[in-house]
Amino acid sequence: MTVKSERSEPRAPRRSSGDVVVAALGILDRQGLPDLTMRNLAESLGVQASALYWHFPNKQTLLAAVADEIVSRTRTRPVAADDWRDAVHFDAMALHDALLAFKDGAEVVSSALALGLGAREAGRRLAASIERGGFDRMIAERSAEALLHFVIGQTWHEQQRLQADSLGVVVEPFATDPAEASGATPEGPAVFELGVDLFLAGLDAREPAAPSRGAR
């Protein structure tokens, strides 16, 4: 008697946690945070939703990993800045750009930080740059936290406005240049950079006699 050989269906390739995070970033950027569900993510990877829990026990830990990945893409200074203010300014602007690179990026990072699950590298980087100005560790860390809240909050606001602009529900667009802000709503990049400069001016005035702080 001839026995027919039965071929099993080809198995989907095994996915790594890195694959899951990359796929989650893709959904986030194309569709936004509300559509980043475990079901949609599993479908995009061609696996069952239960397979995702081998890598991440819940959605919060997945979003924390996504937040870490967003922050990890923050560009770094090619060389050490001579002035601590330049270093802080660069780090703040670089984080702002990294958050803007993905739809709802600021919201994802804010959530991870609020829950204490991820994105801590953003604050550590800012604190290290501030500490170069001669400030003690406590002041540097608290100042970095305050600046981080500003960066995330302002970027989140910008992303909401940009999404509203794309839907045609905003009357006045962002003023992208300080000179344009005089006759329009002074929002977006113009306000962000001004906010960082004001933060640095206030921090610089806190301890004017610090010996290790470089001159402008």
From TrEMBL:
Residues 14-74 form the HTH tetR-type domain. Residues 37-56 bind DNA. It holds the Pfam family TetR_C_1. PROSITE patterns: HTH_TETR_2. SUPFAM superfamilies: Homeodomain-like, Tetracyclin repressor-like, C-terminal domain. InterPro entries: Homeodomain-like_sf, HTH-type_TetR-like_transc_reg, HTH_TetR, Repressor_TetR_C, Tet_transcr_reg_TetR, Tet_transcr_reg_TetR-rel_C_sf. It comes from the Bacteria. Gene3D superfamilies: Homeodomain-like, Tetracycline Repressor, domain 2. Keywords: DNA-binding, Repressor, Transcription, Transcription regulation. This is TetR family transcriptional regulator. It comes from Herbiconiux aconitum.
